[in-house]
Here is the input.
Amino acid sequence: MIEPETDDDRPRLGVLLRLGVVLLILALGAGGVLLVRIATAPDPARASVHADLTGGIPVADVRPGSLTPVDAAVDAAAQPQPRAAAGPDPLRTWAQRLAVPAEVPARALMAYGNAELALRTENPGCHLSWTTLAAIGRVESDHGRYGGATLGEDGRPSRPIIGVPLDGSPGVRAIGDTDGGRFDGDPDVDRAVGPMQFIPSTWSRWAADADLDGVGDPHQIDDAALAAGRYLCANGRDLAIPADWWAAVLSYNNSVTYGQKVFGLADGYGRTAR
Here is the structure.
């Protein structure tokens, strides 16, 4: 889940990472746009990420700000490619080829790959890779499969993925309702929703319509992945730079452990795709 942003927080985090003052990250936090700010004492992941999804994910032994994950883009065959005027859809072919070795549903890979393709055009200086989105999608919802859900061809889980109520319980920030229950079904408090776990108030800012159906829907993985990609690229970040990659991921969840798990997953996806 993404932490809520302020205009001042994210630049400050980037500076701290560049200076290597890693211990200050937890104290100062990162401004996120997709989710809420959590107190740093409890594990921020408890606010939106379902804890049982992350328990089996290894924590990469890497210092925040020191490295970026392996980039699959060095091999053209490992990159998603845009649709041609005629013939098979290369994005689907790429996703189907990679699904088994990466252990990621092909439909989810199509969403992550499509988001990379979109950002290559609209924000090429960000250097967003599908591997980072896939890693976040794994941690946040197991690629839309949390709780036994299946990801349909329409890009929607078979049942909505709704996070815990943000009601001020231990380890959870209190966030009052901002959507009248439209996205999360809760008229009293907000909850993170969908495969990438957006809070309704932040979705209203970063909503995307990647599947071109005329509606930005946080429950639809194409829309959610593109919105998450734009969020990670915000403020001029270049994710090929270690400090910026870590600033982006920690803004999604201000937990070093979270960032190290995302790093390990993204690195693994990159190596698998090569």
In short: Confidence is low (pLDDT under 50) at residues 6-52. The CA atoms of residues 140 and 153 lie 20 Å apart. The chain is about 40% helix and 0% strand. The radius of gyration is 17 Å.
